[in-house]
């Protein structure tokens, strides 16, 4: 049996569940956001090992029945509605997070892509950029800083062709409305407010010219590469997250063998079973690594390219099942 | 007399105190105008840099230097806002609206406006319909090559894109690759397929339920300002009066002669009996005067069923619009 940890509106789960069913394997879809409000877990230390029992939806599951856990997009733990005091809610939810980290750590099975703490650790761009560089990927000359003067220096060194990125996506708002900091070409106007950089670090890289952008999805040792022709649209030219179906062209890309092998090695070396790697193919034919997202979205790639990613995920998940 | 260093220092303080939101720009201009009145020699001008997709604005102040030339000042203050937050964009900056979660980008909206522009509709209805149809046609089978070609021909004809050169120039103008254009056509063709199928499947039932709307009505009517229409209405024979207006114009009016189902003649004439004259009555942005020459009971012939299908589809869209959860991001 497979345990899927994800929130209930996660469309990607709906792509994989039918594939698991086709393979005759049952799955339990549980959102840790239901803990502790609507689910219970009993952990017993027996002969030096933990035995976990998950109680949810009126059923009880000995966690040893799960041959793999797909750690997709779980919600944060949530206190029951009846816990009204804000400090009590904070207390409950923090304890729940700490407990669930321990539960994951001592839950001995195959984790896809990895346990939460490892997902968070490896999606840090500082960590995965060095891992990629060590494996021989071409990576942009990168500066991560909150030093205001370095901003102007980096812009000068890049001859005015500098881009800035967030260290990681974090939610914030302006005047009550959500805002995003997309990959942004740094203009002279941006330099005039250099003092603001002191308040939070940013990633600075020379602009890398693109022929196409590649989204490389690694599942175990299988690699699915889609090319996104982001340069045809003004909306996606600098950051393809502005994509829209009709205006973005996708195709399957044939990755050179050495780059493909390096992608598998990168994901493996980070201790992951899955990763979405963003790479730029320059007009000169060079593959430039940008980042790996250990739990990136892939449903849209499958939809536009028919690459069988959900099948590969299902294959990985059921590989530990003992035949009946 | 104030020296230039003092003027500069004052200008910097002025800039640092200006409101940095779009709604504060008027107040900022007033502040600068008031300061310039005190320092006329500066010939100060405020330049407002309105960022797309952000409520934040930037300012520059241009001053004359006493020895000739200009000085441009910008002076963002320390307000504790991180650099990445300051230079962020609203999460919906590239979107116009969402209908039941189906979002519409600015780029698609612009194309849609040209594709759907109709007379009795608001732009807003057209954009909502685009989202409704995108959702509704999702399960439609892939369009055939003939359907795609027809969608392309219609699209190009409506825009006067008759040659390959015209087409390439237009693609460049709107920032589309030919592959993106094909994707757009694919969506249009699928929507058209959905529409054709819905009309065909619902025509008979709609006709049976609303037979009176499909009486065959032969009518003439004139549309224009009220005075010339009132003059026509003063005649005993409305048909002769309208015919006379064509021969001897009584002002700027538009005359229509039609033989259609009742649902597709102007609303004031839909229920009029044979020989009845109507108007002048308010109609669209003017007035209407007209008369029904002949009215025959509805029969389910192919033309009438086609009209019933169109009406059924309009009713479907109106129903979906009424029930949909619509979120306009910028209205």
From TrEMBL, chain A:
Domain called ATP-grasp: residue spans: 129-318
Biological process annotations from GO: SOS response
InterPro entries xref list: ATP-grasp (IPR011761), MvdD-like_ATPgrasp (IPR048936)
Keyword Nucleotide-binding on entry: yes
Any one GO molecular function term: metal ion binding
Keyword vocabulary terms for this entry: ATP-binding, Nucleotide-binding
CC terms in the record's Gene Ontology section: cytoplasm
PROSITE patterns according to UniProt: ATP_GRASP
Listed name of the protein: ATP-grasp ribosomal peptide maturase
Organism: Streptosporangium carneum
From TrEMBL, chain B:
InterPro entries the record matches: PpiC-rel_mature
Protein name according to UniProt: Uncharacterized protein
Taxonomic source organism: Streptosporangium carneum
